[in-house]
Amino acid sequence: MPTTTAREVGQRIATMRRARRMTQADLARAAFVSLPTIKGIERGARFPSDDTLDSIAAALTVDPSRIVTGSTRTESRVHASIPAISAAIAAYDIPVDDPVRPLHDLSEAVTQLAEWRLSAQYAQIAERAPRLLTHSLATLHHSTGTDRLRAARLLAAACRSADAVAYKFGHRDLSARLIDLMRWAAAQTEDRIAQATAAYVRTETFFAARAHAQGLTALERAIDASPSPIGRDTTAARGALHMRAAVIAGRAANPCAAEQHMAEARRLAESLREDSYDGTQFGPDSVKAHEVSVAISLGQDHVQRALAVAEEWTPPDDLPAERRSGFWIELARAQVWAGQPDDAFESLKVARSIAPQHTREHPWAREAVATIRRLKRADAESLTGFTEWIGAV
Length: 393
Known about the structure:
Largest sheet: 2 strands, antiparallel
Structural class: mainly alpha
Number of helices: 20
Distance between the termini: 29 Å
Number of strands: 2
């Protein structure tokens, strides 16, 4: 764990900044952090959060451990936790004597994990997921009646947050196991919305295997099995499945199905305000973001559609950080395809400012910045620094 005081952190940042002939305003702009935040950190009045530390370290082109003693890069912290996550679910169907946590306490911990997922705080999830998964399983096995139904929902939600880490950091086998466990738990909830959420997340296994046609079939079956859209949550559940189906239809090179599913998602979103249901964001803004995703999924022939959406709409601040960052990464890919490397680099910098951990681990972000670097080899030092930060060299 980091052992450096806030004062020492501030002094190190100030020293590195001056060595690079940067003003505090320069660093704030490069790190996409407010100037008052930089000033407060440098004078030792506040300690940087993980995301802020990542952003400042990236702007200074140093590893976070150069700033905070004992800090490690997010990917190192995540990978170090993977064996423990795997061990926690190895015997999920066998009751053991692990501690049983009160449901209200377990619920608070699972909710915190979901909040970290939506804000792309993957290291936080990875370090706490093993213990939470262990306790969730123990509570499920030792509960009965309505308590067991609630425990099953909490286990499914915990698996979803842990899977976000496993999937995004390339541990696809573990991701598949977590999704299977999520589906197993959801089947015990007697809740069709929880089961629809599990079907939504299961799509990751089809993306990973590039089994897009099969994934589309699975999602369409899940849509048929989902509850009728007669209320807020049921409408959002079905709308999210349509959004997901549109993206995978695009990757299956099925533009007709992609447009049909997007049209249905738009229709369902019209009656809802943008909000989160069962851990998934759905509403008009989410649908708009997915229009870019679908265009990118359909390939370079549809790049103008992605650019047109971005000209008239950008994600609002109240959309989850992971989804906003994903929008800018996908837009950057479209801009690279359209021969706009400068715009693409600006989009990647916005993505990093929103969710550094998500951006650094996103394969399309790495691919895009590597392409930009090849096109602009003699360009600004900031591009070189970004390329090194994201690991595309």
